[in-house]
Known about the structure:
By secondary structure, the protein is an alpha+beta fold. Helices cover 30% and strands 26% of the residues. The chain has helices spanning 18-26, 40-43, 61-74, 88-98, 105-111, 114-123, 172-185, 250-267, 300-309, 313-321, 358-362, 400-413, and strands at 6-10, 29-33, 49-52, 79-82, 131-134, 150-154, 164-166, 199-203, 209-217, 220-230, 241-244, 272-281, 285-292, 338-343, 350-356, 367-372, 379-380, 391-397, 415-418. The strands form five sheets. The protein has a four-stranded parallel sheet with strand order 3-2-1-4, sandwiched between helices. Strands 5-8-6-7 form a four-stranded antiparallel sheet. The chain has a four-stranded antiparallel sheet with strand order 10-9-12-13, with helices on both faces. A hairpin with a 3-residue loop joins strand 12 and strand 13. The longest helix has 18 residues, at 250-267. The chain starts with 5 loop residues before the first strand and ends with a strand. It comes from Streptomyces caniferus. This is ATP-grasp domain-containing protein.
Amino acid sequence: MSPRPKLVLVGQLSTFPWVFDAAERAGIDVILVPRGDDTTESAGRAAAVVELLPLDIEGNPEAALAALADRYRQEPFDGIMAGNEQAVPFVARAAKELGLTGLTEEAATVVRDKRSMRQHLRDAGLGAPGFVLIDNPDDWADTLTLRFPVVVKPANGHSSFGVIRVDDKDGIEQAVARTCKLVEAHLGADDGLAPEAGVLVEEYLDGPEISAESLIHHGKVRVCAISWKGELTGPYFQETTLRAPAQLPAEIIAAVEAEVVGAHHAFGVTEGTTHTELRLVGGVRPVLLEMGARIGGGGYMAHLAHVSSGIDMAVDALRIHLGLEPLCWREEPVPAGHAAAYQVPVGSGGRIKEIHGLDAVRTDPRVDYLVQTMGPGSLMRPYPDFSGYPVIVLSRHESDAEAEAYRAHLARTLYVEYEEQD
Ligand code: ADP
Ligand code: CA
Ligand code: CA
Ligand code: CA
Ligand code: CA
């Protein structure tokens, strides 16, 4: 490998800087395959990007793979990594074809399907809520034997889009119809939804939510950070806050790690990086909601891990996909503080008139990143629909209490004002 390794990054949205910044830190050149909805103008801007390689992965995966193989033959690159959830299966296939490090195609298929993940967890004797897949819109409600409350969701959704909690049998048909309709309405919106994947109804896991960020190299899993998302009780589930490290007793941390490591083995995830979401049922028993075989939050979960554990997770993820050993395998990193993420709630939705409080955040020394993806004029649809996250703030603090206080401060001062509706 040359002193400056080259990696193809597939579908990393260029408004999210974290993985590009990591590549720059590590001296890795990036060939960016822009996401379909990314404007080429912003796509090339990051310093680490040395080349743009547009491929129509969704529209014509065969041709995309052939074009990638052609590019490889012209001048080989050293690795390939997925920059978003939808790119995971394509990247697995390309890695295999080109002999590069990555997920197996089998594992990629499992982690792209919530139902399949559930099945594998059960087979491995790990926790999973009861669920049914509704692929036939008639003829299911009467036979439903799940314990209420339940959650209705697209089988291959994202960002809590179309996810609805239902407390009793009376509301279930309406909720399923609503989720189906939302999935239909989003088709062609370049978000990878497949209506044929169906809708899941599953038992509600009652307890706070956490997330775990992991690195996997030669089958060995390291859980780098566990973050606290808190109580999210619905009926809709927009994520607004995360704090790391989660303040949990050592025995619960150990139980979470065991569940997460077990899930990697159950799914056959042996190389790469993952974002795993879990609930702590009754506050103590970790049960997996889902796993994504990529860096979470469009990259920002790696920053949270970096601050809270000292592990430069995005750099180590890139290294793994280059076939290199992660740095944290050798050297024990030192935590730098408490990290927090805040995503401005969409609330009622509408056309954005103004986003208040941005200037104060921009100049706050506690803030590492402020990413704004929407501005005045943008149309935000309220949950359970989804249009994007308007603003993301990543900050660092001396303690978890200070991180929490800052979150409360942001909740008061940073908000979207919508135009009045007529
Ligand atoms: P997505 O792919 O849209 O993120 P998830 O399965 O992660 O789908 O669901 C989104 C959110 O909805 C979760 O983060 C969680 O807060 C809530 N949720 C989903 N399923 C359940 C469940 N079975 N019990 C409790 N909460 C759930
Ligand atoms: Ca998901
Ligand atoms: Ca999720
Ligand atoms: Ca999530
Ligand atoms: Ca699509």
